[in-house]
Amino acid sequence: MKKDKVIFFDTTLRDGEQSPGASLNLKEKILIANQLVVLGVDVIEAGFPASSAGDFEAVKTISQQIKTSSIAGLCRSTEKDIKICWDAVKYAKKPRIHTFLATSDLHIEKKLQKTRFEVLDMAVKAVKYAKSLCKDVEFSAEDAGRSDIDYLCKVVEAVIDAGASTVNIPDTVGYTTPVEFGVKISEIKKRVPNIGKAIISVHCHNDLGLAVANSLSAIENGARQVECTVNGIGERAGNASLEELAMALKVRPHYYNVTHSIKTKELYNASKLVSRLTGIVVQVNKAIVGANAFAHESGIHQDGMLKARETYEIMCPVDVGMPESSLVLGKHSGRHAFFKKVKELGYKLDAQAAEKLFEEFKALSNKKKSVFDEDIIALIEEDSTVDNKIFTLEYLNVISGAGIPTATVKISGKKDGKNAQFKVFQEAACGSGPIDAAYKAIDKIVKMDIMLTEFSIRAVSSSEDALGEVFLKVKYKGNLYSGKGTSIDIIEAGAKAYMQALNKAKSFEIRKGNRYGKYDFRKNISRSLREKSSSVRRIYRTQG
Ligand code: KIV
Ligand code: ZN
Q1: What are the residue ranges spanned by the domains of the chain?
Q2: Would you say the CB of residue 229 lies under 6 angstroms from ligand 1?
Q3: Domain 391-543 fold
């Protein structure tokens, strides 16, 4: 008998982006969407178009670019939201409108201040309207986990009659338990007469750490779509993790007896990408993609592993795309080995970008004995997440030690944010530390009212001469922007990260059509144009 397929609906770009602190710009969302396609995700929820102009733009652009997976947009059950959603997803080859309305008494009475009857009516009208625009309509009964089963079945039946082809049963607050949730799904299957005309979907939150268990229990009871996110990111404690669901189905095929289209060898790349771009670090003991997921510490385990891997490992690291042992590059590695590695890491670069990258690799390998995969990824992604690079850090000189830390910086900038006419400016500032001094000097030039809200440093790879990576977030005009910078020198990494965040903020502002006037390089400092150099130099003198 042919096995049923479980549809993977990824909501990293919508629910995942609602994670505290995660905010992605358009370029970052497109990078993630492309990786989701490579991963084999069936439906990509690209955002909530009515929630902001940025979300609308992201859903529209992803709809225009992605040709394989379905692209869904989320909307409340109002005509206005649904129309905006359609205006964003209609460019997709396979568009989906995903409309939602709460069905628990708590939400109906307290949040919506309506009656069950009114909510049922609203849901039906919303689905009918959505269906008049789009043939693929999903309805979500928000807080279904705490909804009365009789009423929930009524709503599900009515929205299927109105045209919903997928009915989603979210455990919005992560309250249910696996057996209870499984029973809910099997009751819906049994009691809703027209259920055969729709796919049952589930969307589980992880407040009690049960999101994956609840989703799997739902699959056992007939759900055929799971909504999930890469690394399990999402509101509060997050959503069901895509990689855990996919691997559970792969490792236990006879138990679940379903198929899916996730290419599990791409899980690790997806996890790394999402973590890097959102700045949400994956805990080391995270199942499937955590750094320790395949690490064996105890002697007994290591002994068992050497005799037969299956003694202590239920899956191979290669099955999830974890590099077994990285071929380490160094200063003697040539073009061929380098480009082979770039390809293996899943990047396609045009000739110009490839040449620039090779030069950067050569420069790095002269400073650093071994160049690891992580180092190469850091080089590739350094500038790939900025839409329009307006400011370039040309020079950085920091004096630190016993005295007052002082920084001198030179920055070149595009004159009007669009053309390539550069002006270079320099400034100096003191600070409470070397990084603070550098940021103060940069602030004097860019004249943006920036607040640093997050800052972290880590080593990109494991060697003594590892690249340092700074990840930070800044607030500008009410929006958060992330920045990442890598260098052998952590102060330079910090300055690069700051510049990246400023570039994202400024290019977003320009895209939004704000006046460019505020960013007007001071007229009195153009003499340093002559000294413009393309590489960032830093002299770090320690006194005392
Ligand atoms: O958690 C939830 O209920 C949701 C819905 C909008 C699907 O995210
Ligand atoms: Zn959710």
Answers
A1: 4-278, 294-324, 335-382, 391-543
A2: no
A3: Double Stranded RNA Binding Domain (3.30.160)
| Residues, beta carbon < 5 Å, ion ligand 2 | 15
Other Cβ atoms closer than 10 A to 226: 27
Instruction: For residues 30 and 27, give the distance between their C-alpha atoms in angstroms, rounded to a whole number.
Output: 5
Query: Looking at residue 449, what is its pLDDT?
Result: 92
Its pTM stands at 0.80
Contact call for residues 528 and 395 (beta carbons, < 8 A): no
Distance from C-alpha of 473 to C-alpha of 502, rounded to nearest angstrom: 10
- Given ligand 1 and candidates 140, 152, 171, 201, which is best to mutate, with the most ligand atoms within 8 Å of its CB? 140
> 498 in ligand 1 pocket by Cβ < 6 Å?
no
Distance CA 439, CA 444 (A): 9
* Contact (Cβ atoms closer than 8 angstroms) between residue 54 and residue 85: no
Residue 532 clears pLDDT 70, i.e. is over it: no
CATH top-level class of 4-278: alpha beta
Q: For residue 14, which atom of ligand 1 is closest to its CA? A: 8
Nearest CA to ligand 1 atom 2: 172
pLDDT-wise least confident of 205-209, 379-383, 486-490: 379-383
Dihedral angle of Cα 43, 49, 53, 56, to the nearest 10 degrees? 40
Structure token digits, residue 390:
């307006």
Residue with tokens 């603070």: 436
Pairwise CA distance, residues 337 & 25, whole Å: 33
* Whether residue 100 has its Cβ less than 6 Å from ligand 1: yes
